[in-house]
Each structure stands twice: as structure tokens, then as C-alpha cells.
């Protein structure tokens, strides 16, 4: 099957999407699928990207091409309105532009690795349905619910009960009403402290935390989530203006371009600098910049004291939902926002949550019920809090979880025996099954599903004849173990995705090479966050919740891997290497005679 990997996109988290697309390209099973990289730019053009550009560090490294960027690093929106001829000329430098009506000529399936508005809200899902292309993830309805945080709260309240105080505020009311009055109203509804959220963003974009009883903090947080940036004359005249407008164009620290100033859309950083200079030359005290994709309302939620968690829900081949082991977010930051998720090492994760088995069962039961009631399908990651009283408060379902190799959903699927390659195969297979349920193109998709299931079964049968590749990592001190583990994870992913190799991870530990012990690791151990977590897992103990989850997920594990989750096994090095046809060594200073 030809799989179109759709990445990039028009939303603010496009760089994370771009990184997720690379993960899919690298880890998709090459024995089953041929990946086709389809880059989606900020204005919605679809481009089959030249493969040499797929592994660029960031979108702006190659698009717009450097010759179009000038003195600023920009996204394509900043180029303004190009003619069709100008646009075609530019796009030809990075790949082949295709229109949706031609998708069928290139791909059999669309793997959506994009996040945010337009990407996981039913928009591109509806486009693909119109042209009869099966796609990954929930349906149009499930996707639209999955992006609307206000609707989610209402629906989760109906599904499982939600004892969480919430409120909303429209931009019109915010602009017309006295801020101090609004602040008092919000405090009366949700209490203090509280969280402010942009309700239609993914990946925790547009999240602010108000903890002081100060109206200034309230106004600042609300404007942040409306994507409004206020600039004072003093700030403008004492800053590096070029650096300031460049930051404004950066999606990870600014509100992005284009922005509106005095009801005029401004597309380019240089133009913004000129317009702000002119604005303040008129003796204005401040300027208000509003993102062209500003929210129309913001959501307020009471601050919850408790253990923060994230729990994925997937399905058996027969569409029975299964809750995965919930991951506890041990945060070193106040809000698990975009930077905490993707750009910070301040947070750590623990699987499962450190609590009683009864509480863990309740978390799984609630997320499973929410998944079923909100008609998500395929896969959804649902976040929440477990209070000290044992109450489960759910929020922010995510129908397209992050796609980095260390994403929470991959860690949780690892606990039932699926590596990243297996998980991607699951997403594709189960999404085809989900498309059949809509009653459109039923026979076509049934035949595609049968073909894929036959190929998956043949792949499993052929695993025994593959070249086994042992890779040794670990070491004799914590620093060596962590450094080698980083390399080992890359090797594991690369080998698992290949068409002819079978990875055999061997963890080395001891005081020196002469006293070293060697442990063959099962799939789930390769998803531990740090090497120190592997050391703790060498005793072979398994949490009872994970044991039960594996039983619930047996049909999934067997369908995609052909075997149940193994256990840690201490091995004799010479014996294990004699059964392998190739070896890689990531243990510094360890000499092995083969």
C-alpha cells in the first residue's frame, strides 16, 4: 500500500507535526507500506516533498526557499498573495504539487500526522472522505469533538460525570465589559487559581494560568489565549525592533503572522515593523496585534490539585475499546503546555500512575467510557487529574496524539507489546476498519482491509526467517547507560521498521566488562524514559494494572505482533550472539570477541 504521510499544515503546531511526519516516515513498516511524504504548507497546498528535504530540522529551513525569505525567517503566509504562476514556480523547488482530486493517483491511504485547527477538527478528514481516500484517526464527527474543548467538557459531563467548574468568555464580551467585573464573575464561577485555554487548539497551544487575585494577570492570560499581543510605545521604542517582529512571526514564541493592526492584515515581519513605527509616530500609547486566526471565546477551568495523567484508548480488531495504562505527568512546571510537552526536560512520566489499583481501574473505566460515548474510534489520548480523594476529572481528548518516538501513546502501546512500527500499522489497519463503519465505500475498504490483514499475517509468519540483529547498550555507570540508551532507541526503531531485520536489544550492566551481566529486553522495556528505569525493571516485576491491560489487549497484540509481551531474560552473551547474524555495540569501552 502507498501511504501518504501528511505533515506540516496550517496550524500553530506545524513544526511538531513536521517532526511527527518524520517519525512516521522512519518507523513505518517497509515490508507492508511505501511511505509518500506529503507536506502541507501554511496556506493548504499539498506537495509531495523531495525526500532530501523530509529530514530537515524545521520547515523554514527549506520552505519558503531561502531566496524568498530575505532578512527574516518566515512561513509561507508571510509571502502574501502569490499568483498561481509564482506559487507553482516556488513549489517546484521543493517537490510536486498535487490537488486533492489527484490523491488517488499517488496514495491508497492518508496517514494524518498534523495537529490543530484544519488538521484534526474534521476539515481534512471531510476532504478525504469526499474523494474516497481512507485516512487515519476518528471520523469527521469524532475529530470535530476532539478539537473543541468547550464541547468536550459538556459531553464528558454527560458521559461520565465531571465535577469540574468551567466557564467561557467571548471576545465580544471581553472587549465591551469592564475587566474587573469579568474577573469577579469568573472567580465566582470557577474559583482561584484557574486555567485559561484557547478552546480550538491542539498540543496545549494557548494555555495560561492565573493564580493571583490581580485583574492585570487575568487580562494578560485572556489576551494570550485570544492570541492578542499588546505592545506599548515604551516597549517598542526601547526594543530591538527587527528581533521583536521576528519573534512575533515565530509560532513557538509569538502569535504568528498575519496579524491585524487597526483592522489591517499584515503578512510580513518587515511590513509589521514599518506599520508599528508609523502607528507610534502618531503618539499612540499602545498597539494591539490580533492573530488572523484568533479565538472567538476562551475557556476557564478551575485549578485541580491532584496527579496529572494521560491515558490512551485504542481498539481490538473487532472495534472493542481498550484503555491503555495511564501515564502520570510528574511536572516541574505549573502547566503541561506546548513547551513543557515538546521543548522542556522539566517533566517526567511514570507508567502507571502511582496510586491504588482501584483508582487506576477507575481511570481506565472513565476514559474508556468517554472514548465510547464521544464516538472517537481508532485512538484517542485523554488527559485528566486524579484528586487526593480518588476523583477522576477528565479533559482535553486528543484524537491525533503526538507522533515523536517518545510520545505518550507509543510508551503506553509499548506496554502491551507494540513498538512504534507496530503502532503505526495499528493506526492504518484500524482506521480502515473505522472507515467501513461510516457506510461509504464499504466494499472497497473491506477488500483493502482483508488485503492488509493478509499481509500482516504473512509478515508475522516471516519474522522467524529474518536477520536477527543484536545491539548491546548500557554500561558500567549511569552516564554511560543514558548515552548508549539514546543510540539504542534509534537502532531499535530503524531495525523494527526494516523489511528484513529483527532487533534483539541486549542491556549490559555491571562494574566492568568481566563482571557484566546481559539482559535480553522485551518490547515494552525499550520504551522506558531513562536507562535508570530499565535498571529498575530488570527484576522482571510487572504492575498488576499492566498485567490486566495486557490481557484486555491480547487480541491487539497478537494481531499485530503474533506473540504476547515477553519478559526480561538474563542471557549468556556468546549464546545470544551465536543466534544473531549481525551485532551493534553502543557500550563504550566494551570489547566483544565474536
TrEMBL record:
<dbReference type="InterPro" id="IPR011127">
    <property type="entry name" value="Dala_Dala_lig_N"/>
</dbReference>
<feature type="domain" description="ATP-grasp">
    <location>
        <begin position="223"/>
        <end position="429"/>
    </location>
</feature>
<dbReference type="InterPro" id="IPR011761">
    <property type="entry name" value="ATP-grasp"/>
</dbReference>
<keyword id="KW-0961">Cell wall biogenesis/degradation</keyword>
<keyword id="KW-0133">Cell shape</keyword>
<dbReference type="GO" id="GO:0016874">
    <property type="term" value="F:ligase activity"/>
</dbReference>
<dbReference type="InterPro" id="IPR000291">
    <property type="entry name" value="D-Ala_lig_Van_CS"/>
</dbReference>
<dbReference type="Pfam" id="PF01820">
    <property type="entry name" value="Dala_Dala_lig_N"/>
</dbReference>
<dbReference type="InterPro" id="IPR013815">
    <property type="entry name" value="ATP_grasp_subdomain_1"/>
</dbReference>
<keyword id="KW-0067">ATP-binding</keyword>
<dbReference type="InterPro" id="IPR011095">
    <property type="entry name" value="Dala_Dala_lig_C"/>
</dbReference>
<protein>
    <recommendedName>
        <fullName>D-alanine--D-alanine ligase</fullName>
        <ecNumber>6.3.2.4</ecNumber>
    </recommendedName>
</protein>
<keyword id="KW-0547">Nucleotide-binding</keyword>
<dbReference type="Pfam" id="PF07478">
    <property type="entry name" value="Dala_Dala_lig_C"/>
</dbReference>
<keyword id="KW-0436">Ligase</keyword>
<keyword id="KW-0573">Peptidoglycan synthesis</keyword>
<dbReference type="InterPro" id="IPR016185">
    <property type="entry name" value="PreATP-grasp_dom_sf"/>
</dbReference>
<comment type="similarity">
    <text>Belongs to the D-alanine--D-alanine ligase family.</text>
</comment>
Amino acid at each position: 500500500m502507498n501511504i501518504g504521510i501528511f505533515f506540516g499544515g496550517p496550524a500553530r503546531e506545524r513544526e511538531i507535526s513536521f517532526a511527527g511526519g518524520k517519525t512516521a516516515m522512519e518507523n513505518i513498516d517497509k515490508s507492508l507500506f511505501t511511505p509518500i511524504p506529503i507536506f502541507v504548507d501554511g496556506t493548504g497546498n499539498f506537495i509531495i516533498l523531495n525526500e532530501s528535504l523530509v529530514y530537515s530540522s524545521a520547515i523554514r529551513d527549506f520552505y519558503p526557499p531561502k531566496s524568498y525569505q530575505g532578512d527574516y525567517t518566515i512561513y509561507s503566509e508571510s509571502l502574501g498573495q502569490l499568483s498561481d504562476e509564482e506559487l507553482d514556480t516556488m513549489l517546484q523547488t521543493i517537490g510536486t504539487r498535487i490537488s486533492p482530486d489527484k490523491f488517488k493517483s499517488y496514495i491508497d491511504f492518508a496517514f494524518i500526522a498534523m495537529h490543530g485547527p484544519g488538521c484534526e477538527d474534521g476539515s481534512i478528514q471531510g476532504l478525504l472522505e469526499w474523494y474516497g481516500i481512507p485516512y487515519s484517526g476518528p471520523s469527521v464527527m469524532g475529530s470535530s469533538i476532539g478539537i473543541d474543548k468547550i464541547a468536550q467538557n459538556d459531553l464528558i459531563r454527560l458521559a461520565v460525570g465531571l465535577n469540574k467548574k468551567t466557564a467561557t468568555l467571548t471576545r465580544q464580551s471581553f472587549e465591551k465589559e469592564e475587566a474587573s467585573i469579568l474577573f469577579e464573575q469568573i472567580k465566582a464561577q470557577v474559583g482561584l487559581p484557574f486555567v485559561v485555554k484557547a478552546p480550538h487548539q491542539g498540543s496545549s497551544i494557548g494555555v495560561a494560568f492565573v493564580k493571583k487575585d490581580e485583574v492585570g494577570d487575568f487580562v494578560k492570560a485572556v489576551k494570550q489565549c485570544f492570541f492578542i499581543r499588546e505592545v506599548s510605545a515604551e516597549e517598542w521604542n526601547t526594543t530591538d525592533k527587527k528581533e521583536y517582529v521576528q519573534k512575533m512571526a515565530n509560532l513557538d514564541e509569538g502569535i504568528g503572522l498575519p496579524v491585524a493592526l487597526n483592522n489591517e492584515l499584515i503578512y510580513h515581519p518587515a511590513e509589521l515593523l514599518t506599520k508599528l513605527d508609523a502607528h507610534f509616530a502618531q503618539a499612540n500609547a499602545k498597539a494591539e496585534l490580533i492573530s488572523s486566526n484568533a479565538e472567538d471565546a476562551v475557556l476557564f477551568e478551575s485549578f485541580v490539585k491532584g496527579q496529572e495523567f494521560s491515558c490512551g484508548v485504542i481498539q481490538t480488531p473487532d472495534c472493542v475499546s481498550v484503555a491503555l495504562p495511564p501515564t502520570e505527568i510528574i511536572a516541574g512546571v505549573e502547566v503541561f503546555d506546548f513547551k513543557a510537552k515538546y521543548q522542556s526536560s522539566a517533566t517526567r512520566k511514570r507508567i502507571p500512575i502511582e496510586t491504588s489499583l482501584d483508582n487506576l481501574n477507575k481511570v481506565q473505566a472513565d476514559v474508556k467510557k468517554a472514548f465510547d460515548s464521544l464516538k472517537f474510534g481508532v485512538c484517542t489520548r485523554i488527559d485528566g487529574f486524579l484528586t487526593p480523594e480518588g476523583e477522576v476529572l477528565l479533559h482535553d481528548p486528543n484524537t491525533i496524539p503526538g507522533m515523536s518516538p517518545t510520545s505518550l501513546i507509543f510508551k503506553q502501546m509499548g506496554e502491551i507489546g507494540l513498538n512504534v512500527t507496530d503502532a503505526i500499522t495499528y493506526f492504518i489497519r484500524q482506521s480502515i476498519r473505522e472507515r467501513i463503519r461510516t457506510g461509504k465505500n464499504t466494499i472497497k475498504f473491506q477488500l483493502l482491509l482483508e488485503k492488509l490483514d493478509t499481509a500482516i499475517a504473512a509478515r508475522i509468519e516471516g519474522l522467524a526467517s529474518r536477520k536477527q540483529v543484536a545491539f548491546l547498550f548500557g554500561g558500567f555507570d549511569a552516564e554511560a547507560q543514558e548515552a548508549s540508551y539514546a543510540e539504542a532507541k534509534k537502532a531499535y526503531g530503524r531495525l523494527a521498521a526494516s523489511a528484513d531485520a529483527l532487533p534483539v536489544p541486549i542491556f549490559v550492566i555491571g562494574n566492568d566488562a568481566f563482571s557484566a551481566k546481559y539482559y535480553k529486553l522485551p518490547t515494552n522495556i525499550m520504551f522506558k524514559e531513562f536507562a535508570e528505569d530499565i535498571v529498575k525493571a530488570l527484576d522482571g516485576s510487572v504492575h498488576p494494572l499492566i498485567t490486566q491491560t495486557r490481557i484486555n489487549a491480547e487480541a491487539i497484540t497478537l494481531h499485530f505482533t503474533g506473540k504476547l509481551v515477553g519478559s526480561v531474560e538474563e542471557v549468556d552473551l556468546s549464546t545470544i550472539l551465536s543466534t544473531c547474524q549481525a551485532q551493534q555495540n553502543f557500550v563504550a569501552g566494551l570489547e566483544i570477541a565474536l
